[in-house]
Amino acid sequence: MAGRDVPAGRGLSSLLPLIERVPDGWSSATYDGRRYGVTKTLRADGRAVSVYAEELGGTDVVSTNVYLTGDSVELRPCEMPAEKVLAFLRDAAFDQVD
Fold this sequence. Notes:
Radius of gyration: 13 Å
Structural class: alpha+beta
Oligomer: single chain
Order of helices and strands: HEEEEEHE
């Protein structure tokens, strides 16, 4: 069962890989030709995940919480459309950490 904020056709199987590709802690990424500082925080034994991305040198922000409960997932974007969050999670290129 998908959360109320996940667009139709987007469920657990499609959202989890997007969240998992974001490195834990702080990282940097490129999205839509712009650089972002990204923080991923896990809470409640990984059942609650926060992702906050802030454009470096700009004003854009992407922010969401994801709640994993049993076999369901709920995407809860913070003051922005779910599609903006999903596009960022899907298309951001995260820098490799050596």
